[in-house]
Specification:
This protein is α+β, with helices and mostly antiparallel strands. 48% of the residues lie in helices and 12% in strands. The strands form three sheets. A four-stranded antiparallel sheet has the order 1-2-3-4. It has a three-stranded antiparallel sheet with strand order 7-8-9. Helix 14 packs across helix 15. The termini are far apart.
């Protein structure tokens, strides 16, 4: 009778007692069991195990996909993933992030003391315990990366369960594993004091002030701010719900995020008075992007992150207040203006209400706090007044 073989270096190996000695076997799903000579560590055992994992003692069939991989391994799953319509539907940034994480996983050794990596390991040999050990190892140093790694591995397991049917969905080892990440404290909303400090240091007409105004009053991502053109600014007559007509200026453009998936979310954002004042002195005659550097050229998306760091430093603002933080400031501002959650979602181009609800909850939390303070102060004021009246009666 075969017995479980608890050695992470040899997935698929089992042992049995035969004539008083342990005999070792290797078996992959749907394949006959193969005898492995000797014991783990012996040269003949290692050679036989390597051949078994690469094709049951025969020459391995090479899957003709980009990057070529052994069949039904995680390397095979990674190559197959890149050909699925779901993967091709992701935007470039999402593809690159997941590809980096997947490559990191594929290069991990199944056991630190053995050269076999997960790239060349059949998917069926990853169980929940091994997966948990991988994720917990990353979790100790970076919770966020651990969460993203789990998501990336889940994509490979999705190929194995739903696309290629190598394993049954109920055998997916990731089903029982969850990674919870605390709410990020990065890119906080700018308090009024920080905004006033920035505005005082960078006057209207400068690139710094233009970038700040676009980031705050449009509430969009750095890629959209860098790419925004004067041709996106139009004047349009709008009929309001009460039947009245109003003539407004608005930026009409498509967000860069998810352009590969559905063309990008179409945005129509009216220009408020303060944004109009910030744009007024700029030269529109040459067209091109609204935001330009000192040489009249467009900023790259990545350069805006560094430039905002430089501009905030000039204004004496502590590090951590970023361009994306201005987007959060806009969402918070709308919630504090008591704008409905659905309208905030549309204004910021969110694909779901999850993030939008955070802004509304935060604004409501502040309102509740103010109401509590007001109620306490009123109650104590009444109590003090009653004491004063009682003292007056006693004096009389």
């Amino acid at each position: 009778m075969a017995r479980p073989f608890k050695d992470a270096r040899y997935p698929g190996v089992s042992s049995r007692l035969k004539n008083g000695k342990l005999a070792y076997r290797y078996r992959a799903k749907g394949m006959p069991e193969l005898r492995l000579p000797g014991k783990p560590g012996d040269p003949e055992f290692e050679a036989a195990y390597e051949k078994a994992t690469q094709g049951q003692g025969k020459k391995a069939v090479i899957i003709d996909l980009p990057g070529r991989a052994l069949p039904k391994t995680f390397g095979h799953a990674a190559r197959r993933l890149e050909t699925t319509m779901e993967w091709l539907d992701f935007d470039e940034a999402t593809q690159q992030k997941n590809a980096r994480l997947i490559e990191r996983f594929l290069n991990l050794r199944v056991d630190p003391n053995y050269p076999l990596t997960w790239r060349d390991t059949p998917v069926e040999h990853l169980d929940a315990d091994r997966l948990r050990a991988i994720i917990e190892g990353i979790f100790r140093t970076n919770r966020t990366v651990a969460k993203h790694m789990l998501v990336a591995i889940k994509k490979l397991l999705w190929v194995a369960t739903d696309v290629e049917k190598w394993i049954k969905p109920q055998d997916d080892p990731s089903l029982s594993i969850r990674v919870r990440v605390p709410k990020s404290t990065k890119n906080p909303a700018w308090p009024i004091a920080m905004r006033e400090r920035f505005e005082e240091r960078h006057p209207i007409g400068t690139a710094a002030r233009t970038c700040y105004a676009l980031g705050f009053w449009l509430g969009n991502r750095r890629g959209d701010i860098a790419a925004l053109e004067w041709d996106d600014l139009l004047t349009e007559e709008i009929e309001l719900f009460d039947g009245s007509l109003v003539l407004i200026e608005a930026f009409d453009f498509r967000q860069k995020k998810n352009r590969n998936r559905h063309g990008g979310r179409e945005m129509f954002i009216p220009v408020v008075d303060k944004l109009a004042a910030a744009l007024d002195p700029l030269d529109r005659s040459k067209g091109g992007t609204v935001l330009k550097n000192a040489y009249g050229r467009s900023f790259s998306e990545k350069s805006l992150t560094g430039m905002m760091q430089h501009w905030t430093r000039q204004a004496g603002i502590p590090s951590g207040y970023t361009l994306h933080g201005l987007r959060r400031t806009f969402g918070t501002y709308l919630a504090e203006c008591n704008i409905q959650a659905r309208a905030i979602m549309e204004a910021m181009g969110h694909s779901s209400m999850t993030v939008t609800d955070e802004y509304v909850r935060e604004a409501n939390k502040k309102r509740i706090a103010v109401d509590i303070v007001r109620a306490i102060n009123e109650r104590e004021a009444k109590r003090d007044a009653m004491k004063r009246r009682a003292n007056l009666r006693i004096v009389k």
